[in-house]
Amino acid sequence: METVSARPDLTSTRQTFGDHPLAVRETDHYTREYVGGLVEKWDDLIDWDRRAEAEGTFFLDQLRGRGARTVLDAAAGTGFHSVRLREAGFDTVSADGSPQMLARAFENGLTRGQVLHAVNADWRTLGRDVPGVYDALVCLGNSFTHLFSEHDRRRTLAEFYAKLDHDGVLIIDQRNYDAILDGRAGGNRTYYYCGTEVTAAPEHVDEGLARYRYTFADGGEYHLNMCPLRRDYLRTLLREAGFGRVETYGDFRTEQAGDEPDYFIHVAEKRYAAEPDDTGRDGAA
Length: 285
Hints:
The protein is of the alpha/beta class.
């Protein structure tokens, strides 16, 4: 029987899920999923130019509107948002749990005239791995759903909260798993994964696992196992972590009745709000 190794092989180009891929539901496995082969192709999935056009200045406007200057990009990936933030003038630190992703991010930054301050960090020990506090922390790209246990999610949000200044803001996103779990539409737009020669589709979904298959133009195929967190569950976690106000957007817009966005974006303010947003209403209030 094939077993999954305890430590990732940083030179490997092949993913290893063992004999029972649907049983792989552990937080630490993500470092073995972002192997060299997938990292090499990740920018084909994103398509930086089309992604920048799709999201516009949404994140930059959210940060500027709150007076943020220092930003911790806690899920830097191959560097798309870190580079955009630095180009826009934000003092940015780029963190990721995958050393291979960070290496690619650093290379991508150099090709665009930016020298990234890259740190390999585990969210659950962020205070140990990354010094200082920040005006803002962004955790984007559906990355938070790599956390499979509630203990890891709560611990991570506590670390995020502690990394923020007293009036800091956390911007965190997630795929619209509600629509997928409930058999509705969703996942059909291309705001996030804009590459035209790549397909990303759920291969298996249940309440505890969303296993996605990524197929590339050259026939390469990779998978990611993620935990399908529901929108209101994550909003509740954010409030219970201490954030005073949580606004939720759908695909960079205020949510509308009947809308089925591809992604939810939660903007959580650390600053105490006189009347916390605990009614479930979303968007700019």
